[in-house]
Amino acid sequence: MYVRFGGRYGETYRRKTTRRPIPSLLMLHCEKEGYTIPRFCTFDCVQRLNKPGKDGEELPRVSVLKGEKSFPVMLTTFTCIHKETKEKIKYDDYKNLSNDEKEQYNVYPKMQVFRVFNVAQTNLKEARPELWEKLEKENGHPFVHEGEMFSFEPADRMIRDNLWICPINVRHQDDAFYSISKNEITVPEKVQFKSGESFYGTLFHEMGHSTGAEDVLGRFKPTTFGSKEYSDEELVAELCGALTAQRYGMTKHIKEDSCPYLKSWLDNLKESPQYIKTVLMDVKKASSMITQKIDQIAKDIEIEKAEKEKQTEAPKEKMYYASVAYLQMSDDTKQLEELKDKGDYNGLLALAKEYYDGNGMDEQYTYSSPLQNRGDNLLIEDQNFAVVYNGSVGGTYDIMLKYTEQEVRDHIRRYGIGRASNDVKEVAKAMVAEQFAEIMQKKTPVFEMPNGEVLYINYNREKDTLDVGSATNAGLAVQHSFEYNHDKALDDNLTEVNEKLENMEEYCEAEEMEWGGFRR
């Protein structure tokens, strides 16, 4: 026989809560007073809102409403003092020390009490409506389209991939519970709940139970139904579920089957006020375990989405750099040197642009990278220009105009590549390869020779040739290669190759001459 914690699934939750964790007592205080925004501030914090804005602008004053009472919040701070040197360090730094190093310090805890007000106890809504609206959005109820059920992807991923400290079984039945003996959680399917939020609230409740396992937080061991230990554990799980739900902007109400334990909890609290402090410590540990796991899963999901978006983003168009002015004389470089030495690269770029005479691209000095020589250093560039400095040859400046690959292609179509750089020639080769691939998709281009022989043709990008030969299982058996003329279109190149082949004796018939032609 085993004890299980839980019961029927919860009701629909309607109260708005914050996405950030707040102390357990403040969360309960919000529930009691009906505060829809769980944000609190001290009296001094309210006063700091009344500092003048930008340019000394006076803003409407924010103040605590007359008759409102504060709520006490206890905060423990720690003073860490070195035993010998008496040097003080921050507690966060102390926690990062090794155990041996910690032995050298005395740690003194100090309990401080702060009196806080909820933002609803101030006139913030009237004085600063923009700030109030921002807080409402940050702490609002998760948006759900009509007819849809709210989904929380990190929790769904945790269930699907079995990422929690114990298995979570989602089954079509009426009970939600954690089994101590089996160390597993069972919850009904989400569609059985009145809302998606109530499903996750119930899930967080049972996850809270699972943190109490002997090898985890060790809160409980198998006990009898209805005992004090059982009652205490239900309180921890209920508050843990509520805190976790509000951490992720979900609403949470007390489960109906937890109500019978309320009298027991209140009796214990009356007998010993320390009881609630002990319970809340357990709640904090349990909820921290849950939120840390969910936050890590959420982070992993965001990373995956970012990677996927990066992969689906349209690749940026490749840029090419055309030299428009090469400066090496001291009269030309003096002002540029002065700006470079001052670190005024924006001024340097503005001055360099004045050397551009407005002429078009010179394909002979157009490259895929602005760095072409040893010692080249790209000082600065913007959308249209780049300045390259080389200090190894006396200090030269190369002002370069940037072109997109599409602009380089258009230039090749107009002017060819008779005097182009190797980088521009590679673009031309790519253009021919793309054109030839389009032809191949429709029909393999062949030449029908006068003697009836059929020759196949292919573009060899590596050699930049049109290769002609017979087709074999291993591919094209090349018999002739013709250099591709980029000053002419593909059709013109094919026509020229066909004419050259027809004039070859090996493809002519002495008695009956048939003029061949290429077909596609």
Automatic annotation (TrEMBL):
Domain N-terminal: 25-117
InterPro entries referenced in this protein's UniProt entry, alphabetically: ArdC_N, MPTase-PolyVal
Top-level taxon of origin: Bacteria
Polyvalent protein metallopeptidase domain boundaries: 172-276
Residues annotated as transmembrane: none
Annotated Pfam families: ArdcN (PF08401), MPTase-PolyVal (PF18818)
Protein's UniProt name: DUF1738 domain-containing protein
